[in-house]
Design a protein that fits this description.
The chain is about 50% helix and about 5% strand. It is mainly alpha-helical and about 190 residues long. A two-stranded antiparallel ribbon has the order 1-2. The longest helix has 24 residues, at about 75-100. The radius of gyration is 17 Å and the shape is globular. The two termini are about 30 Å apart.
């Protein structure tokens, strides 16, 4: 899918997601079925690895099919995979901030601006697969290393949401699980 200089990019059709998804820490997601209240933070590393495996299966599909959007305002499978890769990278940075600093304020991240700037729709599925697997393993290893009182360390989003490492882990896992559901239709 290519665009000319004067044409709208696929990113222009996306309606920004402005929802506050922190509610997933309080009740099951009616769409993907994940109940983060039942997730032990110590299980998140294994869940990230399992989720990455699901994405590798998706990314092994037909390249053109991976680029096809179900409708103009919904990301393609490839775009979702790029987003998940970047979520894994971002959450590793934020986890390290929480472990290294007292109550850090996370820098803002606009997922839609990132998708446009990084031209998700033009990325190569095999490259994305490798990067996603690497990012998932780095994040999983970091969560595997968290112990004891570290689970209680805090960090804040600029919108006022406060997380402990424990709630941050449970909040994180919903995103890639939900997006794998978006792509495969398979609930947890």
């Amino acid at each position: 899918m290519s665009t000319s200089e004067n044409a709208l990019s696929p990113a222009d059709a996306i309606v920004p997601d402005t929802k506050d998804w922190t509610w997933v820490l309080e009740r099951p997601c009616p769409d993907c079925g994940l109940d983060t209240t039942a997730v032990a933070a110590t299980d998140v590393a294994a869940m990230v690895r399992a989720n990455a495996h699901g994405w590798l299966t998706v990314l092994a599909g037909d390249g053109e099919g991976l680029r096809r959007r179900p409708s103009p305002e919904i990301w393609s499978d490839l775009e979702y995979a790029c987003h998940v890769r970047d979520v894994f990278r971002l959450f590793l940075v934020r986890l390290n901030l929480m472990l290294d600093q007292d109550g850090p304020l996370f820098p803002n991240w606009n997922q839609d601006e990132t998708a446009a700037a990084e031209r998700y729709w033009e990325q190569q599925p095999q490259v994305v697969a490798g990067e996603l697997a690497e990012a998932a393993e780095a994040l999983s290893a970091a969560f595997d290393a968290v112990a004891g009182e570290q689970w209680r360390r805090t960090g804040d989003r600029s919108d006022g949401a406060r997380f402990t490492v424990e709630s941050f882990a449970r909040y994180l896992i919903h995103d890639p699980v939900h997006h794998l559901y978006d792509v495969t239709g398979e609930r947890v």
